[in-house]
Sequence to fold (392 residues):
Amino acid sequence: MSSNGASVLALNFGSASLKAASYSLLANGTVEDLTVRPTGRTSVDSKYTAAAAFEDDAHTLLAEAAQRLPELHDTPDVVAHRIVHGADRPGPAELTQSTLAELAALSRLAPLHQPPALALVQAAIQRWPNARQIGIFDTSWHQTMPEKHRVFPIPYSLYASGVKRYGFHGLAFQSAMRQLRNVAPMLATRRVVLAHLGGGSSLCAVFEGCAVNTTMGMTPLGGIAMASRSGSLDPGVLLHLQRDLGMSPDQIDQLLWRGSGLRGLSGESGDMRKLLASGSEGARRAIDVYVTGVAQAIAGLSACIGGIDLLGFSGGIGAHAAEIRRQVAAELEWLGIEVDPGLNQANATDISTSTAKVKTMILSIDEEAEMAGAIALGEGCTSALRFPTKEA
Fold:
């Protein structure tokens, strides 16, 4: 963007709500002087329960978001959409109908995220037909991963057909790294493991500011256990479910995406807050599996980058569940990770003890600001834009 005051609306649909944020892109003659200024922000709860039912809900969500953001009385210049699966796209892309068709073909790989996001795109096109519609992809952040961390141990010929590790939560990792560059610039260029823990959870190894490896794979189903998703399994389990237990592919799909993880292990809930308050045997089992999975992922990702200098927590669980951070750190004391009980309980930015060999921090994220920044320069996390605070 080169014009002063160009307006951007960032739309980010999560598991149960739409986050919408508006920005003004201010330029003073050069790219180096480009500033992304927030002008408004809101969140609208969704009644979405199935992809087929989301089309009408998408229009309702946009209408309510526009009502809550007075600056949207005029058509935004650009509407930026968070799209979870972009395959190998390295950065933002204009959402033409042909591009949307390609992205729709990826819906089976991200069934919880892709269909509602694309329905929002179509609703936005109808509502603001004169605005540019741009997709920002969670997978783009991971394009720097070396092939050895992207290929699966199956016939290599399948790699060329798209059977590979893509990685997700890219906007969250970008945002975490941006905060880290602000608060600890020397550490941001070293060996970093980011743990984005929430309803969907994944971790990423970062070296010199670039993604090296991550826990999720071809879909957002892989990696550690999540709220209702299984995480990675012995593939023989899936064959057993189908061949020996007679489950159909659709039944297995439902089980792995919506009936597993914390919900399946506990038999109670996929909400970590409820599990921590429960005290039941099922809740303890789910928490134990989750914590050990996170700790193992941190250790494994550290091996990919020759060690670890900083561990960063983000997401609903990572940033707010002090007990989970405490338990993860306790399993990794041998790695030099130690958290201060008081700082951890207070959710401070730096929660490390004074003697810890590894810095441990809580990193707040702002995915919508990352989207606006990517629009501004037409690129992803490498931009050096100035991001003011969320308040206008």
Q: What stands out?
A: The two ends are 20 Å apart (CA to CA).
